[in-house]
Amino acid sequence: MKQELMTIVSQKNIAPSIYELVLTGELVNEMHTPGQFLHIRVPREDLLLRRPISLAEINHDAGTCTIIYRVEGDGTACFSQMASGEQLDVMGPLGNGFDLDAVSAGDTVFIIGGGIGVPPLYELGRQLKEKQAQLVFMLGFASKEVSFYEDKFKELGNVFISTDDGSYGTHGHVGVLMAQAAVDYQEPTAVYACGATGLLRAVEARYLEHPHAYLSLEARMACGMGACYACICQSATDETKNKKVCDEGPVFKTGEVII
Ligand code: FES
């Protein structure tokens, strides 16, 4: 983990309240694992806590990384006002990302995401595609209006979309897509998921016993590096133990923590 003033290359509003921010700096050389996150200081004196935002893309050739975030409060609203050339104080990369070791060429992999949990799955997909895995993306959004990156995911594999209001793709939540994929595809070698608690529980229920099923959790964070216990969740195997999402996660195996 390092800290740097990274420079904004570009910022784009890709859906209502959702922004894609490209950053450049030496820190990109440290970024390798999908599912890790950056801890970014809000450039406002009265907002003390950094905001954790996952890496959506790492581009070592260009020396850039991309994050995608939703404006949910003053901190992210502040980020959204920034323009290319301005700088952000970034710590990272932090956390344990997705484990890709089990996947080999030709393997079927299910990648399941919802809403603002979708961005880290893009870099994950890019790296799994490099391994020549067969990727099946199941992505859920509240509506067509707030969906994003469909075309980019389609460059990596098969993409199925669901929307809560039925305005695009399959009407309903991602569980409907998961049930269909279980019929249409062979048992996946690995399963990766990131999204709201309901989505993670649905994935866990279906793949609890799977040897390579991984869930990326969201949590409120303060320090982002294992020192403050703001982000703890409970171990599923030992009720006397807690796990720190920022440090031991955000990616856990199914059955590892209580979600
Ligand atoms: Fe401080 Fe996780 S945010 S321990």
Written description of the protein model:
With about 260 residues, the chain is of the alpha/beta class. It folds into three domains: about 1-95, Elongation Factor Tu (Ef-tu), domain 3; about 100-205, Rossmann fold; about 215-259, Dihydroorotate dehydrogenase B (pyrk subunit), domain 3 (Ribbon), CATH 2.10.240. Helix content is about 20%, strand content about 35%. It is built from five helices and 15 strands. The protein has helices spanning about 75-80, 120-130, 150-155, 175-185, 195-205, and strands at about 1-15, 20-25, 35-40, 50-60, 65-70, 85-95, 110-115, 135-140, 160-165, 170, 190-195, 215, 230-235, 240-245, 250-255. It has a seven-stranded mixed beta sheet with strand order 10-9-8-7-11-12-15, sandwiched between helices. The protein has a six-stranded antiparallel beta barrel with strand order 1-2-5-4-3-6. A hairpin with a 7-residue loop joins β13 and β14. The relative contact order is 0.15.
Low-confidence stretches: none
| Strand residues, percent | 25-35%
CATH superfamily of the largest domain: Nucleotide-binding domain of ferredoxin-NADP reductase (FNR) module
Structural class: alpha/beta
The termini sit apart by 27 Å
Identify the strand order in the major beta sheet: 10-9-8-7-11-12-15
Number of domains: 3
CATH class (first level) name of the largest domain? Alpha Beta
Quick one: overall form? Answer: globular
Number of strands: 15
Instruction: Write the CATH fold name of the largest domain.
Output: Rossmann fold
Mean pLDDT over the full residue set: 97
Helix/strand order, N-terminal first: EEEEEHEEHEHEEHEHEEEE
What does the main sheet amount to?
7 strands, mixed
Number of helices: 5
Alpha-carbon Rg, integer: 18 Å
